[in-house]
Amino acid sequence: MTAGGALTRPPSARDVLVLAQIVDLVRGRGSATRSVLETLTGLGRTVVNDRLREGVDLGVLAEVDPLATGSRGRPSRAVRLRTEAGLVLSASLGAVSLHAAVSDLAGLELGHRFERIDVRDAPERVLSRVEALFDELLAAAPDRPVWGVAIGLPGPVDVATGRMVAPPTMPGWDGADVRSRFAARHGAPAWVDNEVNLMALGEWERGTPRERRDLLFVKVATGIGSALVTGGRLHRGDSGAAGDIGHVRVTDDPSAVCRCGKTGCLEAVAGGWALVRRLTGDARAGRSPALAERLTATGRITGEDIGAATAAGDEAARAAVARAGRVTGTAVAGIVNFANPGTLVLGGGVLRSGPLFFAEFERAVAEGTIELAARALTVRTSSLDPREGTTGGALLVADAVFRPSVLPLWLASGSPCGAAAQVQTAHLQAAR
Ligand SMILES: [Zn+2]
Predict the structure, then answer these.
(1) 224-230 and 378-381 beta bridge pairing
(2) Is the pTM of this model over 0.90?
(3) Ranges of each domain in the chain
């Protein structure tokens, strides 16, 4: 295997552009034969062969072993992306959960770690845990360079700067420069995005069934968020705030005080923390025998307790979960009418509370959507749970570095690490 940057004569700028296009075609297909590439590009055999030789010499492409493809007689002469050339680190942070993964350049996870966190802690405390998990993952992974890092955070992220902007429930994170920290630590380009954006991307690209229709992902856990993939791209909006539905107002009830300081937010009725608040009150008032028992035994009620009480038929728990599902479904129906996705996916910790929430959610979506938006809509639970975010993060990095407009920035040096800042900027401009 040839290492990167071993060319005797560097390819011209035009050759690099053609090679970038070829790499994109190969990547989209997993592998491609020379004759397929000639057809798709309209280029002659000699030009295609020259560019492929450069791609192999630079370490981004590799010849497919003809024996591995099982072809007989004349070898198929196919090439593939060298997905083993580098590693991608990705982390997905919820309010109380941290998932971290190391993947290859195809987004295939080579290792995964999970731990509980409280994201309201100072960024230093939380991010040092992300770094510790990344170090553990790298120590167990093949010895390859890190080509990129993606971090998903549970709040509004300005994707251009990689900083959170006034996150309602994480005040200490306002303006924290998460991207520079990881870019500097790993000497590689880094991206910071909203966690649900990464989850939507992961589910759109790798979820089952793989429908490739516009996809609306709704995460219901401690908090609530959503993200939309339309035409194969994340809809981030003008500054990255798109999809932040947790603090949409859904009720005039003055008792629905939200942790953001306002009242009547979706989260304040249907978020995991609001269910805990409501059912703790029910347990204290004697309306929920099952949860009163938990409260006495442990001093607090958890999401798992609510799931167990719901499964056991506790009326107060069932009523609260059903209401949360209905209110969320009604709010989401409005988005379905507006955005008209083909697939609506529910994910997050709520999936571990039993089937009641999803049943009520699905019914409220059906009741609240117009015929044309509803008739071909698939509503399902997340198929990658709980790995949507780390998968989406790895794919975001791979898509960014191999994008035909970005690849020429680093191709001659064999990896994007030497051009990290330019790669980040170019991808952000292309993603707008
Ligand atoms: Zn709120």
Answers:
(1) unpaired
(2) yes
(3) 13-81, 87-201+387-431, 211-381
